[in-house]
UniProtKB/TrEMBL annotation:
Annotated 4Fe-4S ferredoxin-type domain residues: 324-355, 357-384
Keyword Membrane attached: no
Keyword vocabulary terms for this entry: 4Fe-4S, Iron, Iron-sulfur, Metal-binding
GO molecular function, one term: metal ion binding
SUPFAM superfamilies in alphabetical order: 4Fe-4S ferredoxins
This protein's name: 4Fe-4S ferredoxin
InterPro entries per record: 4Fe4S_Fe-S-bd (IPR017896), Fe-S_Ferredoxin (IPR050572), HcyBio (IPR002708), Methan_mark_16 (IPR017677)
The keyword Repeat appears for this protein: no
């Protein structure tokens, strides 16, 4: 895929940019670094940057894993009628290998454990990547049952697949009604009467925000999916030209657990994924979107129940002048008998210790829900608020929960930059552009 000429006649190709990288002459910047320079008043031109590394981390429901591994000796049973992995149901198939003692399984990222209502596919996948044992319960078509334990290192085929990831733009949500609503867009029942707001999306860091015409992101583009080398396979479900998303896959054996996980919502467990995508800048025209700041990227605030648009805000309203990381000061913990933070944390990142709550930063998603739940104000961060004119009233609505982790997205983009510069990640041309059926 060659670079398209802009109106000045200047263009370059992906192989030419990779040659510059190999020679040590390329300028690679993260999307966060680009934005910092723009805010500092710098004028960035084509010659100032060759590649921008972008990233997004958030709840991405459209996820499934395909697994194939041995559970018994050949001819031990004919067919499996049910398989549970740590209680999470798997779809048996698509290839009937049970006579060989091998299970071929598809496990949905949003599948919920039959043993624990707060455990799902996202939790299972992260624990697998962490190297933990997985209990496999098999019910055969003959009615017998057996259990074995395995781990990812004993599963030769384990691919994570995306059916709808990395939306160019998502939504912010409020509940105008009087009654709380259980929803995947909140870890607790969503309070009504505009008392709170949640949102999704990493704004100016998002891969497709930086390449909305999909000039360099195409079928076969190499990316990092949860830290592992993966590839884009096309447009995802519900993808549209004005708000595309991506499908792709990567090998679970190479993934980083901190980029993954389960997120417990009031409607059940969801799944977290992280994408990092390089954007080679082929011509001057591509800079228009790469140089956009959060305040220039629209974000629709919608009614949670009917997804009815209420007002237009921007990602600047939710990401500018806020704290990306949650801070915990254990000395302020009141050691409450019934800790509301432990009860509410959607990541199980807060537990009880000998002298109060213990915060696990590796599990923390920086969603910020702990801030509104902690009686002692031991957890802190500025999550911001949004001013919105709706229903004839001008309202200030507090952000109480974020379903995208921008702090870890920044780290993912930095990791991709370092891999590109050290030759551990090579840019490649897509084999085909992504298109949509009308």
């Amino acid at each position: 895929m060659n670079g398209e000429l802009d109106n000045t006649g200047t263009s370059r190709t992906i192989p030419e940019i990779q040659d510059k990288i190999d020679a040590g002459d390329a300028i690679v910047l993260t999307a966060a670094e680009i934005s910092e320079r723009i805010r500092a008043g710098e004028d960035i031109k084509l010659e100032d940057v060759d590649v921008v590394t972008t990233a997004t981390r958030g709840i991405m429901s459209g996820t499934y894993a395909v697994l194939s591994f041995k559970v018994s000796e050949p001819d031990s049973f004919v067919k499996a009628s049910e398989v549970l992995l740590n209680g999470v149901p798997a779809v048996v198939g698509p290839c009937p290998n049970e006579r060989l003692g091998i299970l071929d399984l598809i496990v949905l990222g949003t599948a919920h454990s039959k043993l624990d209502s707060n455990y799902g596919g996202g939790h299972l996948f992260r624990e697998m990547v962490e190297g933990k044992n997985v209990k496999v319960d098999v019910t055969t078509s003959e009615g017998s049952h057996f259990s074995v334990e395995t781990r990812l290192s004993e599963i030769p085929y384990a691919k994570l697949n995306a059916t709808r990831h990395a939306f160019k733009n998502y939504r912010a949500f409020v509940n105008p009604g009087k009654e709380p609503i259980k929803t995947i867009f909140h870890a607790l029942p969503f309070e009504g009467e505009f008392r709170e707001m949640t949102f999704c999306g990493c704004g100016e860091l998002n891969p497709i925000e930086n390449d909305p015409k999909l000039e360099t992101i195409g079928i076969g583009t190499r990316v990092l999916l949860n830290g592992a080398d993966g590839f884009v396979t096309g447009a995802g479900t519900r993808s549209a030209p004005d708000n595309p998303n991506l499908t792709g896959f990567a090998d679970m054996h190479d993934m980083t657990p901190e980029y993954m996980g389960g997120f417990v919502t009031s409607a059940g467990p969801e799944i977290i994924n992280t994408w990092a995508v390089p954007i080679p800048i082929l011509h001057e025209g591509m800079l228009e979107n790469i140089l956009k700041l959060d305040k220039e990227i629209p974000l629709k605030l919608v009614d949670l129940a009917g997804r009815i648009p209420l007002c237009e805000i921007t990602y600047g309203d939710v990401w500018d002048n806020v704290d990306l990381n949650i801070k915990y000061k254990p000395e302020k913990c009141l050691n409450c008998k019934d800790c509301l933070v432990i009860e509410a944390c959607p990541m199980n990142a807060v537990s009880r210790g000998g002298n109060g709550a213990v915060h696990n930063p590796e599990l923390c998603f920086n969603c910020g829900l702990c801030i509104s739940r902690c009686r002692g104000e031991a957890f802190s961060a500025n999550l911001g608020s949004v001013r919105c004119a709706t229903g004839g009233c001008l309202r200030d609505i507090k952000v109480t929960l974020r379903q995208s982790d921008r702090a870890r997205a920044v780290i993912a983009a930095e990791e991709l930059k370092e891999k590109i510069l050290t030759g551990r990640f090579r840019l490649n041309e897509p084999v085909e552009k992504i298109s949509w059926r009308e």
